[in-house]
Amino acid sequence: MARLICLSNRIPLGPNPSGGLVVALEDALTETGGLWIGSSGEPVEDPVEALRPVEGGPFARMIFDLSPQENEEYYAGCANSVLWPLFHGRTDLMDIRSEFLAAYKSVNRRIARMLVAILRPDDRIWVHDFHLIPLAHELRNLGVTNRIGFFLHTPFPTPLAMQALPNGEEICFWLAAYDLVGLQAERDTRNALAAMVELGGGTELAGGIARMGARQVRIATFPIAIDATEFQNLAEVEFDKLPPGIVKADRRLMIGVDRLDYSKGVPQRFRAFGEFLDRHEDWHRHVSLLQISPPTREGVQAYDDIRAELEHLAGSINGTHADISWNPIRYIHRAVPREMLAGLYRAADVALVTPLMDGMNLVAKEFVAAQNPEDPGVLILSQFAGAAEQMPEALIINPHDIEQMATTMLTALAMSQRERIERHSALMAGLVAHDVHWWSKGFLTALG
Ligand code: GDG
């Protein structure tokens, strides 16, 4: 069986790496004697130009280092301050600098050189996410003819938004160097195909194939997923271990779980909860919102801004409504262990998943999987999460419409048990049928 090589910006480290992608790829990597390659995450001066093996673990891993300058310009700069905002509809936050775009190319070129040194002719290569879009193009330049697939974890912008990037057409050209490009949702696949034609000057052929010059690439939707059964079992066990006081007979719990990122719509969610409390005094002391937002990308201005905004909003809503026995919002700017998270999802009556733009959003799927099927909670889900295409039985909202979100909070809290069960069982059936193993198998089969 041909060896599978996965590449991502960060590699899951530690003796027992965890996380959704590891679950998705572990089988394929171990079965094929495969390999996962990524950056060490610790910048070093004058990094050597060679992949270094990581000891132990269930499958082989190799890492490379970035220099502090590469980390600044390629990772914090191009990836986090240009491509992430662009791909999430925040062109206003893009910090376009020629040195960022140059570092993006040169780092991808360096990774390609290091990969070629260990590559076998029949290896299949699976590249993950926006940090590494040019990689296949750089590999082709070095004469690599292996099958190469790419999966984008974020949304794909419209061709109009792509014009905000000085080298928008180059992105299309880079994508054409892959054999297969996978996207999270149909909307993204439509955008990517449109960009290949409108910006890249390519031609769309039948079956989602784009032709650019001598190359043809298939562009298709592969919605990422979770191991729903495993998560359901975890939540059932962990619910019983929650500290006392989380579940209260006379108080309902709403939960939000998001990396602290401006794409996640948490300020809008807080405002909607404030509006709900303004409207419904009868719910005071009977509902609270637990928001878990571990920090990411600290030091990038837009992330410092969103943190300050959330602290201000939570303080202001609590200041207006709290009393000595009730705080409406508990805002936790720290990561909680995965096990506890599973228990908390199960304890919650309502999940607020309200991103302004999101590739998929796995929190929505985890919340549904964690519920007690006989007395499940209700998922409120943004129409702009890729997950909305697969989860129509959630209460779908527009996160820009604060009034609608406040109204939907009441709908969720007042929903009959029968309706909750009906919606949940339809959602859960979808999660079990289309789990993370279905996702990775689907992509790898299509890659061939
Ligand atoms: C990107 C795309 C796409 C969160 N807080 C804690 C914690 N988490 C875990 C969640 C979930 C994961 O992090 C977040 O996944 P999401 O999918 O919601 O969002 P991103 O991090 O933005 O991921 C996204 C995803 O890639 C996969 O393709 O769905 O659209 O943006 O698993 O549970 N985990 C722990 N403590 C926390 O405090 N342990």
The percent of residues in helical segments reads: 40-55%
Instruction: Give the strand tally.
Output: 16
For the CA atoms, what is the radius of gyration? 22 Å
In round numbers, the mean pLDDT is 94
Supply the number of helical segments: 15
Which band does the percent of strand residues land in?
15-25%
**What structural category arises from helix and sheet content?**
alpha/beta
> Distance between the terminal alpha carbons, to the nearest Å?
12 Å
Model regions low in confidence, pLDDT < 50 over at least 5 residues: none
Q: What topology, given as strand order, has the largest sheet?
A: 3-4-2-1-5-6-7-10-9-8
Shape: globular
**Main sheet record:** 10 strands, mixed
The distinct ligands, each listed once, are: GDP-alpha-D-glucose
Question: Notable features of this structure?
Answer:
alpha/beta, ten-stranded mixed β-sheet, six-stranded parallel β-sheet, 15 helices, binds GDP-alpha-D-glucose
Overall description:
By secondary structure, the chain is of the alpha/beta class. Helices cover 43% and strands 17% of the residues. The protein is built from 15 helices and 16 strands. It has helices at 20-31, 68-87, 98-116, 135-141, 159-162, 168-175, 186-198, 228-239, 266-279, 301-321, 338-347, 362-370, 402-414, 417-433, 436-447; strands at 4-10, 35-39, 52-54, 60-64, 124-128, 148-151, 180-183, 203-205, 209-212, 215-221, 252-257, 287-292, 329-332, 350-353, 378-382, 395-397. The chain has a 10-stranded mixed sheet with strand order 3-4-2-1-5-6-7-10-9-8, with helices on both faces. Helix 9 (266-279) packs across helix 13 and helix 11 crosses helix 12 (362-370). It is globular. The N and C termini lie close together (12 Å). The model has no long low-confidence stretch (mean pLDDT 94). It binds GDP-alpha-D-glucose (GDG). GDP-alpha-D-glucose binds at residues 20, 153-154, 224, 257, 259, 292, 294, 335-338, 341, 358-363, 366.
